[in-house]
Amino acid sequence: MAMAAGKQISVAPMMDVTDRHCRYFLRQISPHVRLYTEMITAEAILHGDQERLLAFDPVEHPLAVQLGGHDPVQLAAAARIAAARGYDEINLNVGCPSDRVRDGRFGACLMLDAERVARCVAAMAEAVHVPVTVKTRIGVDDQDSYEFLAAFVERVARAGCGTFIVHARKAILQGLSPRENREVPPLLPERVHRLKREFPALRIIINGGIASLERIDAELALLDGVMLGRKVAGDPSFLAAVEARFFASGDNHQAFDRDHVVRRMCEYAQRQAGSGLRLHQVTRHMLGLYHGQPGARGWRRLLSEQAGRPGAQPQLLLESLDAMSMSNQA
Ligand SMILES: Cc1cc2nc3c(=O)[nH]c(=O)nc-3n(C[C@H](O)[C@H](O)[C@H](O)COP(=O)(O)O)c2cc1C
User: Are 205 and 164 in contact, with CB atoms under 8 Å apart?
Assistant: First the structure.
């Protein structure tokens, strides 16, 4: 059965993962999930190569850009540039705990300064007509009570943020790597549920450790949406099951065909080859496509060994497909 109107399922912003090639690939699997860019700093947008940082293919819609920064003027300017390029949502990162991000005084440590986040959001909301949203944690270090989270959300909502994506674990700013910060602090989804009960007018999206259709179903019954991260990165075909369960309505649903996705990606890589793209930049996102299927290991091995070689051609994708189906028949 299709999802209730107004509910949302998205793929999380992931550095080094959700670049434009990854997003194009995921879009071949799911026409409807919302996609996010990797975090891009406002400074990079203002002073860097905007085309490289912000270009995307129109099929990627609905598409949000995630910004990193702490300066309202810079963030507003970066948001304006991204909105003019056609992004559907501007999201502010208030959840990343890495040292580099903390030293830049943005990411998760901003949760400790709700006033500043409010000023950033107000400036961004003033600058663009698309929604400005915030992705945050349930707390930081010893500021980990529900009351702290509620006060942060209340303040930032008043500045013009109507949607919060909440990674349901706190961030620990000293002593844990970013990876450990996605695993060690316990997930407390009930905090996010309480937030929705106490702020029913806000859109509250939950993130963190969600990896089954049943769990998505249960969260959508309580909240406005679900954001999926590592499950999709490791098993992108999971999105086909999400698409079938939550977005398909009767006759518009086409059965998912992994081989068809590979052929589409081969065409994509051929189109991109002219702009100097290396095949590996596309195929690295596709290694998990056959996760759990016969031949998955051979697929992964062939692509990871050969796509990085100098001069590797998009045709390698079709050859890998053939090699897999021959070995499955043997
Ligand atoms: C490789 C990787 C890179 C990430 N990069 C970002 C990022 O750029 N911005 C962000 O807000 N979160 C980032 N995250 C965190 C995810 O968006 C998400 O909050 C986290 O992985 C928890 O969700 P999950 O359990 O579904 O993976 C990253 C996570 C991973 C695994």
Answer: yes
Alpha-carbon distance of 144 to 229, in angstroms, equals: 23
Each residue's pLDDT tens digit, 237-281:
999 999 999 998 766 567 899 999 999 999 999 998 888 889 999
In words, the CATH class of domain 258-329 is mainly alpha
DSSP line for 211-262: -SHHHHHHHHHHSSEEEE-HHHHH-TTHHHHHIIIII--GGGPPPP-HHHHH
Report which protein residue has its CA nearest ligand 1's atom 23: 208
Q: What separation in angstroms does the CA of 66 have from each of 35, 90, 132?
A: 10, 6, 10
- Please state the atom number of ligand 1 nearest to the C-alpha of residue 227: 26
* Ligand 1 proximity of 135 Cβ (cutoff 6 Å): yes
Domain(s) of CATH 3.20.20.70: residues in the chain: 8-249
**Crossing angle of helices 213-222/189-198, nearest 10°?**
30
Residue whose CA lies nearest to ligand 1 atom number 3: 14
| Whether the Cβ atoms of residue 114 and residue 161 lie closer than 8 Å to each other | no
**Closest among 53, 45, 41, 43 to 107, alpha carbons compared:** 41
Identify the CATH number of the domain defined by range 8-249.
Answer: 3.20.20.70
| CA-proximal residue: ligand 1, atom 6 (nearest) | 14
What would the pLDDT profile of 103-116 be if each residue is shown by its tens digit?
A: 778 888 999 999 99
**CA separation, residue 7 to residues 170, 190, 220, 275, 285 (Å):** 25, 19, 7, 37, 27
Q: Is 314 in the pocket of ligand 1 (CB under 6 A)?
A: no
Tell me, using a 6 A CB cutoff, whether residue 228 lines ligand 1: yes
In the residue annotation, 96 being an active-site residue is answered as yes
With a 6 A CB cut-off, is 85 part of the ligand 1 pocket? no
